[in-house]
Design goal:
Number of strands of chain B: 19
Mean pLDDT of chain A: 96
Helix content of chain A: 25-40%
Strand content of chain B: 15-25%
CATH class of the largest domain in chain B: Alpha Beta
Largest sheet of chain B: 6 strands, mixed, barrel
Number of domains of chain B: 3
Radius of gyration of chain B: 24 Å
CATH superfamily of the largest domain in chain A: ADC-like domains
Radius of gyration of chain A: 20 Å
Strand order of the largest sheet of chain A: 1-2-3
Number of strands of chain A: 7
Strand content of chain A: 15-25%
Largest sheet of chain A: 3 strands, antiparallel
CATH architecture of the largest domain in chain B: 3-Layer(aba) Sandwich
Order of helices and strands of chain A: EEEHEEHEHE
Number of domains of chain A: 3
Structural class of chain B: alpha/beta
Shape of chain B: globular
CATH architecture of the largest domain in chain A: Single Sheet
Low-confidence stretches of chain B: none
Shape of chain A: extended
Oligomer: heterodimer
Low-confidence stretches of chain A: none
Number of helices of chain B: 19
Largest interface: A-B, 99 and 145 residues
Distance between the termini of chain B: 44 Å
């Protein structure tokens, strides 16, 4: 049997049940997923996605660099350029059309902390309540 | 959920409606089956389809799609007619009962049978079983909410629970099963157009002042609610919305009427997408910012029972991607004019956007949110905490509304039955119903990249009733085209006895079979949720 380099306890990224996961990791690959029996939401049970659905983490087409559109095509870009351009365009559009001309979609897949920060930017820095996510979808 | 997953198995009666729990919330379905098998609980299932839970149901009600309010009002009518209501609870803990009683007076089982097609005797039986239970718990998912009268549906369920005093005890309550891993949390921390963290309304001046002071904003938080997802997409086409920042979402697959969404995103002046894959939406962006997956970040998710749980980084970041939190801090610094190179690290993270980590961001949420004020990352080991958790020594709240409701008294809502927006007609004679399947997830971005899952179910299947199939000369395995007033989708068909006649069922996990090109007839007037479960379609062999 493979011995894990480490086992990391975390929460399943699929549905809203919130099953506790133990990710068994060898050479930075998740090769096995288990769940502790004292997990509050799932008592050690997992569904087929929760137990086996993690290839996406290691998928070859994961994004590993920013892209910017140049002449209609997305081309690799440096972080500083990409972030600078995003901020510049958002502020430009805000100043030209007003704060409510910008919308922000936060994410039901992202963490509380990330979602909080994006809605904080929308409300506190741009000045719009146009903040929503896929809760209805 | 007003209650907790751990007390599902203590219910004497479970009313499950608009939820194919086995496929969409598999682990919760285990608790439901435990209640039935081990404790002899009775399951009342309301679903037009035959699903796995049908095998465990004492009563399986199969109404015509979109007739929930008629059916639930009639159950309330029977409970009142037979004196099964909890008079003490109604007197002590509710209001508006007389108006409600008046509203369901005419909602006889026979009236509801004529609308929903459910035999009157079955409605009477279900009402008796629910009304006589010592403890009865209601569960629903998108089959109740994704409707042009979704808010009414939820209120009709809440009326039943109020009528019978099924609140505040183990094995009771009204329990929506939330779809995404952190849809509860995204709502809790202000990811909605009308509320800030902990559902503090943007319309409240004192609330806005509190946040403006804490954040030391140079702009004002507007006093009116913003736009929902669907309204934003319309806003782009109307020229009101010029830019969108989309994080971790693929509206081209998941929004209704996807042709319309694509049109909108083609037209927009500026689109920034933060994601882990170059999904259909990211491909249309002006800037794509690579974030990281759940396995490479720290933070918290909040589950359907309001439990805040710790997400821990397990893997190193890949290539030149960045943690989403770092991307957002960078964005915040740039938008507020703080230099990213400023060496005054973490002096005042609230305003300079230099947080020491997710835990520091959480502390800011807690400081601004009374219902979560007692939650800290270090308190989340090992089992998380359920909000409300107002103080550092508070143990969290597994069951809501124990002594009193959040608003004081529980309010009955008189409801009138309304038809769905788009019923079948001669040109589009079938009802399209949509939903999830066990092996895949939402737009498929995650599950379709998991080889095993995609091997088990490699194709988006279109299901129709077997008699409908033979009438149309269609056999299982044929390729068919399903079309609505908004678009079309082509895929392989399977004939089944599990669907009622006149229904087409499709999942929305496969880009090759774009189910949401068909949907989008309308939305609920209050919640703005699309009516995904009833669209008129036609079907033909190709």
């Amino acid at each position: 049997m493979i011995k894990p380099d480490r086992i990391v306890t975390t929460i399943c990224p699929y549905c809203g049940v919130g099953c506790t996961l133990n990710l068994h990791i060898k050479s930075d690959v998740v090769y096995r997923v288990t769940s502790p029996f004292d997990a509050p939401a799932n008592h050690g049970n997992l569904c087929v996605k929760g137990r086996f659905g993690y290839d996406f983490v290691h998928a070859k087409d994961r994004l590993t660099q920013p892209f910017m559109r140049k002449d209609g095509k997305l081309v690799p870009a440096a972080w500083n350029d990409a972030m600078g351009y995003v901020a510049e365009r958002l502020l430009e559009i805000r100043d030209k059309y007003g704060p409510d001309s910008i919308g922000f979609l936060v994410s039901a897949k992202c963490t509380n902390e990330e979602n909080y920060l994006l809605q904080k930017a929308a409300r506190g820095l741009i000045g719009t309540n146009n903040v929503d996510h896929c809760a209805r979808l | 959920m007003t209650n907790s997953i751990a007390d599902i198995h203590l219910a004497d009666v479970l009313l499950v409606t608009g939820s194919n729990t086995t496929e969409a919330h598999p682990v919760i379905s285990l608790e439901m089956k435990k209640a039935v098998r081990k404790r002899g609980a009775k399951l009342i299932l309301i679903d037009p389809r035959e699903i796995e839970l049908s095998n465990f149901a004492a009563i399986h009600i199969r109404p015509r799609s979109g007739t929930d309010v008629a059916l639930l009002n009639a159950m309330a009518h029977v409970i009142l007619a037979e004196g099964l209501e909890d008079k003490e609870f109604i007197a002590a803990r509710t209001e508006n009962f007389d108006a409600f009683k008046e509203a369901v007076k005419g909602c006889t089982p026979q009236w509801a049978e004529d609308i929903s097609g459910v035999p009157a005797e079955m409605i009477v039986e279900a009402a008796r079983v629910y009304g006589q239970a010592g403890s009865a718990a209601i569960f629903w998912a998108m089959g109740i909410t994704q409707s042009s009268h979704g808010v009414d549906n939820v209120q009709a369920l809440a009326n039943l629970a109020l009528l019978t005093g099924n609140f505040g005890r183990p094995g009771t309550g009204v329990n929506p099963l939330r779809g995404q891993n952190n849809v509860q949390g995204a709502c809790d921390v202000g990811g909605l157009p009308n509320v800030l963290t902990g559902y503090q309304p943007v319309t409240d001046e004192a609330v806005r002042a509190k946040f403006e002071n804490a954040w030391q904003t140079k702009v004002k938080i507007p006093p009116t609610p913003g736009l929902t997802v669907t309204e934003m997409m319309n806003g782009v086409l109307e020229g009101r919305i010029k830019a969108l920042y989309i994080m971790g979402e693929n509206p081209i697959l998941s929004d209704p009427n996807t042709n319309h969404v694509r049109e909108a995103l083609e037209e927009i002046e500026f689109l920034a997408v933060q994601d882990i894959f170059l999904n259909e939406t990211a491909q249309m962006a002006h800037v794509v910012l690579p974030g990281v997956s759940f396995a490479e970040k720290e933070g918290t998710f909040t589950n359907t029972e309001r439990r805040v749980q710790l997400v821990r980084p397990a893997l190193p970041i890949r290539g030149g991607a960045r943690r989403d939190l770092d991307i957002l801090c960078d964005l915040g610094q740039r938008l507020s004019g703080v230099s990213p190179d400023d060496s005054a690290d973490v002096v005042h993270p609230v305003t300079n956007w230099k947080y020491a980590g997710a835990s520091a961001v959480w502390d800011e949420i807690a400081a601004l949110t009374p219902t979560m004020a007692g939650i800290r990352h270090e308190r989340l080991v090992p089992h998380g905490l359920q909000w409300p958790c107002p103080a550092p020594d508070h143990p969290g709240t597994p069951i809501l509304h124990k002594e009193k409701f959040t608003r004081g008294l529980g309010k009955f809502t008189p409801l009138t039955f309304r038809e769905p927006i788009e019923n079948p007609d001669e040109e589009y004679p079938f009802i399209l119903n949509t939903g999830r399947i066990l092996q895949h997830w939402h737009g498929g971005t995650l599950s379709r990249r998991s080889e095993g899952l995609d091997w088990v179910v490699p194709e988006g299947e279109i299901q129709i009733n077997e008699e409908d199939g033979s009438n149309l000369g269609i056999a299982s395995g044929d390729m068919v085209r399903v079309s609505s007033r908004r678009g079309e989708a082509t895929g392989r068909v399977r004939l089944t006895s599990k669907l009622p006649r006149g229904m087409v069922f499709m999942n929305f996990h496969f880009a090759e079979v774009p189910t949401n090109a068909l949907t989008g007839a309308g939305v609920d007037p209050v919640a703005k949720i699309p009516e995904y479960k009833v669209s008129a379609v036609k079907i033909e062999r190709v």
